[in-house]
Design goal:
By secondary structure, this protein is an alpha+beta fold. The chain is built from seven helices and nine strands, in the order H-H-E-E-H-E-E-E-E-H-H-E-E-E-H-H. A hairpin with a 2-residue loop joins strand 3 and strand 4. Helix 4 crosses helix 5.
Length: 306
């Protein structure tokens, strides 16, 4: 019996000692950490600030600049009264920054009103029946470039009506919308001779393939000075010069337009041009494509002569 008690006591003692040695219950004997140094505090503060900035960039901050964007919708109004018909369609813009877009809408409305004297249908002094209409075509629409062709049609009697195309070209800046015209699109005064050299042969080819001399004179007269080129449309590839009815051809030939690429016009642009970044991008892409085409031509030639 004494032997069994001794063995049992020995077993209990061994279990107790092994429990004390267990890591889960062992007493923490790690020495207390010393107070953080000034360099440690600075590093912690910098890490906290960086974390706050990262969180702000992820979740959005009230002070963060709003990325400009732009879209358009059509405003339409029609009035019919006693043989008088007026219909108006023009774009209204939505986007950011809101102040600049609101100003752009005011400019568009003023622009249309300036070309549509018969919007107040009862105030028109013309005793005849008439038709006035306004429509538009979007060439470019982004904060960097808004280019819209506005077409104003009127018929007040006679053989046919007449259409006038007017350009509405702007870009959004921090100081509001800035108009782009022939006078400033190149960043300097346009070179009339260069424009004539680029545009006249194309007009002749398009309108009068069988030139008899008189047709050429009509074109030369309609492109005699810079005011003849002022109706421009702008996109990412080049400038389009729009000509009015009767300007370079008869009514039956309509209102011709000629597009000239930025590659052909690049020497006319300066860095102060409002579309200089667009021109650089277009001419760089064109240069890259030309180099690729030349390389492919060389590779074909080389393979065929091996």
């Amino acid at each position: 019996m004494n032997i069994q008690r001794a063995l049992s006591s020995s077993f209990v003692l061994s279990v107790f000692l092994s429990t004390l040695a267990s890591p889960a219950l062992a007493t923490n004997t790690t020495k207390p950490t010393s107070a953080p140094s000034s360099s440690d505090l600075k590093q912690t503060a910098a890490s906290t600030a960086h974390s706050k900035r990262a969180t702000a960039n992820t979740t959005g901050s009230k002070d963060q600049a709003v990325k400009p964007w732009l879209k358009s919708k059509t405003f339409k109004h029609t009035t019919i009264r006693k043989g008088r018909f007026v219909t108006v369609e023009y774009p209204q813009f939505i986007g950011e920054p809101k102040e600049s877009v609101a100003t752009l809408n005011k400019l568009m409305k003023k622009f249309v009103n300036g070309h549509m004297p018969a919007l107040k249908i009862n105030a028109d002094p013309n005793p005849n029946d008439f038709v006035y209409s306004c429509g538009y075509q979007v060439t470019s629409l982004s904060p960097d470039l808004i280019s819209i062709d506005m077409d104003f049609y009127s018929f007040t009697g006679g053989a046919h009506g007449n259409t006038v195309t007017a350009p509405f070209n702007y870009r959004l800046t921090n100081n509001g919308p800035k108009e782009i015209t022939l006078a400033n699109v190149f960043g300097k005064k346009p070179d009339l001779k260069t424009l004539q050299t680029l545009v006249r042969p194309r007009l002749l080819e398009e309108l009068y393939p069988d030139d008899d001399g008189a047709d050429r004179e009509w074109i030369n007269t309609g492109t005699a000075d810079l005011s003849c080129f002022q109706c421009i449309s702008i996109d990412k590839d080049g400038l389009t010069f729009n000509f009015q009815q009767y300007q370079v051809a008869c009514y039956a030939d309509g209102a011709p337009s000629i597009t000239v690429s930025y590659t052909e016009l690049k020497d006319m642009f300066t860095p102060t041009s409002p579309i200089y970044s667009i021109v650089k991008a277009a001419t760089h892409e064109s240069s890259t494509l030309t180099k690729t085409a030349n390389r492919q031509t060389f590779d074909t030639f080389y393979r065929s002569h091996r």
